[in-house]
Amino acid sequence: MTYLQVFLVGGILCAIAQILIDKTNWTPARIVVLYVCGGVALTALGVYDPIVEFGKAGATVPLTGFGYSLAKGVEQAVDSYGLLGVFLGGLRATAGGIAAAIVFAMFFSLFAKPRDK
Predict the structure, then answer these.
(1) Is residue 1 helix, strand or coil?
(2) Distance (Å, rounded) from C-alpha 8 to C-alpha 44?
(3) Is residue 91 part of a domain?
(4) Which end of the chain is more exposed for a tag (fewer CB within 10 A), N or C?
(5) Among candidates 43, 49, 40, 54, which has minimal Cα distance to 12?
(6) What is the Cα gyration radius of the chain?
(7) Distance between CA atoms of 31 and 46, rounded to whole angstroms?
(8) 68: Cα separation from own chain's centroid
(9) CA-to-CA distance for 17 and 33, rounded, in angstroms?
(10) Quick one: CA torsion of 31, 90, 57, 55, rounded to 10 degrees?
(11) Which domain holds residue 96?
(12) How many domains does the chain have?
């Protein structure tokens, strides 16, 4: 049952992004920003926590999950460090994912041949 829940939540988030790509003139970069900011906003409103409980990785892996991680990190750091936590929390919560993205990008760049489209 967990796999179905993950698939449904992740699939719905991806379907919404695909509809935005197909039906609007928005660039993919704008949709990425919308998803990250949307994850932060939904977390701040308390709406995203139940989605994460239900959809698990289907809610935390897409870009809305990155916004969720940023917001949760800031929330926890503000409780621990006060105002300084606003600056530290997001970085601490997402540092592992960002570092992994950089390392994998550098690794794959060794095998990729750049070319113009």
Answers:
(1) coil
(2) 23
(3) yes
(4) C
(5) 54
(6) 16
(7) 22
(8) 7
(9) 11
(10) -80
(11) 2-109
(12) 1
Span 40-71, pLDDT tens digits:
999 999 999 999 999 999 999 889 999 999 99
CA distance 77 to 68: 14
Q: How many other CB atoms are there within 10 angstroms of residue 80's CB atom?
A: 10
> Which residues contact residue 22 at a Cβ distance below 8 angstroms, ignoring those fewer than 6 apart?
none
What is the amino acid identity at position 91? L
Q: Which residue has the tokens 């698990």?
A: 56
Q: Is the pLDDT of residue 12 over 90?
A: yes
- Using a CB cutoff of 8 Å and minimum separation of 24, what contacts does 28-36 make? 32/63, 35/62, 35/63, 35/64, 35/67, 36/63, 36/64, 36/66, 36/67, 36/70
Integer Cα distance of 117 and 115 in angstroms: 6
Q: Are 65 and 73 in contact (CB under 8 A)?
A: no
Q: How confident is the model at residue 115 (pLDDT cuts 50, 70, 90)?
A: confident
User: Is 54 part of any domain?
Assistant: yes
Is residue 47 domain-resident? yes
CA distances, 81 to each of 76, 105, 111 (Å)? 9, 33, 43
Token code pair at residue 1: 């049952």
Token pair belonging to 67: 């916004």
